[in-house]
Write a structure and sequence with these properties.
The structure is a single chain. The chain has 108 residues and is α+β, with helices and mostly antiparallel strands. It is 31% helix and 9% strand.
């Protein structure tokens, strides 16, 4: 368990966005027990009726709560995904979804 953080990565286009794009590969090592949560921008750009967005700060608050309160080590990956999705849905408060939302959680 540790403090949640965003991975530092080289900027690239989304896969399949542009034919022939030269992607820059990179690698990183994650410690055993680490959890990687990947998501599309539909998570952070989810909007309320007043157009305020879920955003990176709220995402980090969710991750910190998961780490501290929900005992992240005992959560399975389905519970992590469902927890983040529920957080986004609670934030938008019924406002229609304007982008795809994809969430994937991987435990190392």
């Amino acid at each position: 368990e540790g403090t949640p953080y965003f991975l530092k990565a080289k900027p690239n286009l989304a896969v399949g966005f542009m034919e022939g794009f030269a992607y820059e590969a990179e690698s990183l090592e994650l410690k055993p027990g680490s959890r990687l949560v990947a998501y599309t921008d539909g998570v952070t750009e989810a909007e309320r009726a007043d157009l305020s967005q879920y955003g990176n700060e709220r995402l980090m608050e969710w991750a910190q709560t998961l780490t501290e309160t929900l005992q992240a080590s005992s959560c399975n990956e389905q519970e992590v995904v469902e927890s983040l999705y529920a957080s986004v849905q609670s934030f938008v408060d019924g406002n229609p979804q304007n982008d795809d939302i994809t969430i994937m959680s991987i435990r190392i």
